[in-house]
Request: fold
Amino acid sequence: MIDNKKIVQILFVCLILFFSVSLVLLPWWRIWTSKISDINSTIRIEAEYKLPNFASASQINKENENQSIYTNFSLNELDGPPENKDAIISFFNYVWILAMIGSALNILAVILFLISIFLKEEKIRSLTQKYLRYPLLIGGLVCLISALYFGLEFNAFISNLENVVPNQIAKVPGKNIEGFFGTTVVNVSNLNLEVLYGPAAGWYLAFGIFFLDISLYFLLKTKKYSPAQSLK
Amino acid sequence: MEVNKMKKMNIAAILALFGTLLILINCLIVSFNGSSIVIYSRSISSIDELLQGDTSLWYRISLGIPSFCQGIWIAIWLTISILNLFCAAYMLFSPEKVTTASLFVIIFSVLSLFSGGGFIIGFILAAVGGLMGIQKRVAPSETFVGKILRAARFDSKLFEILKAEPRLIRDAVSVVILVGVLSAIGCGLYIQNMNRITESIGNSPTDILLLGNLYFDIHSLRLPSIWISLTFIKWLVLSAIIYLIGSKLIKLAADYDAVARATAFAMVPLMLQFFMPIVFPNQPYLTVQWPLIVWFITNIWAVLVLIVATEKVFDISLSRALGLVLVSCAIYWLLVYEILLPFLFSSSGEIVGIYFVVNPKELIFGLSSLAILIAYVLGTFTRRG
Reply:
């Protein structure tokens, strides 16, 4: 019979597993048409950037689906000087390596936790739980660093590109991207679309996993409460 | 004793855990979408369609405030929702520090309303769990929030306790204040935003109806500041009417303070008016139907609770209690909405908040006469012994 506290710990572990797998699979940055432009115009554009070097973009024509464009691309296919494209590719690679290390450490902590549940001997179990805290904390910290590094440095690299999405989708000059998140206006098929850009799910998960790790760390550290203790 | 305490902790912590988990799921959806959750009953092509054209019902449900659900804000809400989940878990892990953890659960849950509040259900569960956790030495059903929930689900035993326990007057006044604040915030925000839509101030119609935004500023606090005293007066008046008819006219045994305590808890369903601005329909539903639906549901619910409360306070049958409440409410309506409020606000020319004017005036008296006749037939005025 597993007690409530163990269930809560398993819940946190499941969340950490979900976060650490999703953060490497989901996009970290994206550009998309604002809701107001979405309502007022017939065209919608969207582009998502995943680590290490995968991106996809779409230009959806709401009136005629046949004219919609969907494309996958890599960063070196974008318009811009080769050295700038190399710089952003290596930046994405660094972030990806950091995210992978963080994610792997988190998964290691999850595996150690699951092993500790099935261990019968109390001494080995508490030893496993003690040592799983290190990959847990370091993993969370590395993920947070990767998210912060990506957020702080991204603009410096993306702004050097001449167009941040493939030419057949739209013309979004890198210099118009003024921060990690914000808004700009893009002209597509003679329509002025308001587009938003900013972090996507992967980045949020990399940022949030640190707090999940810290939470589980403290829950594992919390001494067992006994009614007798409270009566003292 | 200690086992009971532990069991009680578990209930509060489990409620908070479920609530905070829903809040986290809500936040994850927001981070995946990059915006708050806005649900439309059907798609429309322009805002004019909603304000002048189509009269078939259209509505949007907005969970969270879209302007607070973009960029770095999402990271902040995600962090807060994880910390909230941790605090809820900590309530279970460390019962000796449950008060602090509960306090944080409440604060974080209120903040989560900006990102959608865990589809609202999460916010309610977490807030209930947190409030139960704060009163750690009391059984869940005896906590302040436990009593509120019991009143809302017509728990007759609660009203027996309220009748017998004069010390609960503090809880009764707390309920009245809470009702005043929550319903005023809900109604105030709805009125403020509704006016912005009908007067087409700037981009407000598009912002509120299509994007799901909600405008609030310092003026949004105007109504709560007034409504606490108004709700207090209304409570005293309604309690006095029920007491005068029940105790002085029919000679049923109950004190004024017992009636007042029960009446305060009968007002609990009015708290739900807080959630009114989540839904905004198109015209003409915007100015009449939707406020009327919310007002009607919450007030009918409150009247039903009041019938159970009256039954227990005066120790009479349900049918006699129904009659007593009908007569009291009819007189209350005449007194408060036709005399007191128009008199109090005669200088400013308008009564604050959401209210309904019944025309012609004969209709109010006709309805009041009907209430008296029903009460007579139900045997409310029969004196026994």
